[in-house]
Q: What sequence folds into this?
């Protein structure tokens, strides 16, 4: 090999090394700035919204070993309905005793290899009094985000259940983004679920999210038509007198399809995953119509690639009989067809 060739090979080798190093450095820098993709939540069920576990076990039909049954049935996540405002003092500080109970529930969920969603569920306050809601919601997420910073990486936060009532989309967007800022200060990589306004026209186009935060999941609830899904509900003067109503005609299916299509179009355009966080039918509906509805909604969500959570495990709309400690087979067959 002559001197010219030797120098040429050394120069070529150095250039290649610099090129490879540059590529590796660029990839590493890109990786540092890339948020994790939101987890695949799959099928889920709502739990503990009205259970006495938070008060220390009074009137508490839910047993933590029910989480084993939930996993075995084919669910992969639970949505923990938590009324945090109820356990705040006059200074909006959360009760440490209740928070330790929440810790225990989250740990039991994770021990069953289920994904826990912590849903702040104080809809009634937030739909009635926006200023009170804003103060309490920001205090709630400040404390919760600090408590779980660096802990339970599979835990998902849901900012607020069913914003609506006195809230407009503009008001909700401002409060939502404030809460996201609070959460991201201590939980920059946490998956967070955010709802659009829970009103009849489903104004998903009005939802404003930070464009650079891609670890968000957008949620909505579906109970349309509410006269069918809530027929016979004794807590409502209107719906308690309704029924029996059927569901399942081609027109019924077309209406549900159109509602879901509106969400699908937005989701694909904005590249945001969707979570159907609640759907269900009250027990007074005709049994066959109820199972047709549940099956249609669950299968439609799955075809669109959306995670979903049934409302709810026990109490009303129940999929599980707490007294007998057994699943209700017709509901389970509608939700998860492999269940017999």
A:
């Amino acid at each position: 090999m002559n001197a010219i060739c030797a120098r040429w090979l050394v120069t070529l080798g150095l250039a290649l090394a610099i090129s490879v190093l540059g590529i590796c450095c660029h990839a590493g820098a890109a990786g540092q700035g890339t948020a994790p993709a939101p987890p695949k939540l799959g099928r889920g069920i709502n739990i503990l919204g009205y259970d006495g576990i938070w008060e220390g076990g009074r009137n508490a039909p839910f047993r933590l070993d029910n989480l084993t049954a939930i996993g075995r049935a084919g669910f992969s996540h639970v949505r923990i309905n938590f009324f945090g405002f109820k356990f705040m003092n006059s200074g909006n500080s959360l009760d440490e005793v209740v928070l330790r109970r929440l810790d225990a529930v989250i740990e039991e969920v994770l021990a069953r290899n289920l994904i826990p969603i912590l849903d702040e569920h104080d809809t009634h306050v937030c739909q009635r009094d926006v200023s009170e809601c804003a103060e309490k919601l920001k205090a709630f997420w400040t404390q919760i985000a600090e408590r779980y910073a660096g802990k339970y990486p599979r835990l998902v936060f849901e900012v607020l259940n069913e914003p609506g009532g006195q809230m407009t989309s503009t008001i909700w967007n401002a409060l939502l983004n404030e809460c996201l800022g609070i959460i991201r200060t201590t939980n920059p990589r946490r998956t967070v679920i955010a709802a659009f306004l829970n009103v009849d026209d489903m104004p998903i186009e009005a939802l404003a999210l930070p464009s650079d935060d891609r670890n968000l999941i957008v949620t909505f609830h579906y109970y349309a038509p509410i006269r069918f899904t809530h027929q016979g509900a004794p807590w409502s003067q209107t719906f308690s007198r309704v029924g029996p109503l059927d569901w399942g005609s081609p027109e019924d299916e077309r209406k549900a399809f159109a509602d879901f299509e509106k969400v699908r179009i937005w989701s694909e355009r904005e590249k945001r995953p969707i979570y159907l966080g609640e759907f269900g039918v009250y027990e007074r509906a005709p049994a066959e119509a109820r199972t047709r509805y549940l099956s249609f909604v669950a299968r439609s969500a799955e075809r669109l690639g959306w995670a979903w959570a049934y409302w709810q495990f026990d109490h009303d709309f129940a999929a599980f009989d707490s007294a007998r400690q057994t699943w209700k087979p017709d509901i389970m067959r509608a939700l998860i067809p492999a269940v017999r």
Remarks:
- The CA atoms of residues 194 and 218 lie 5 Å apart.
- Strands lie at 43-47, 77-82, 115-120, 156-158, 192-195, 216-222, 274-279, 307-310, 320-321, 326-327.
- The chain has one domain: 36-335.
- Residues 1-34 have pLDDT under 50 and may be disordered.
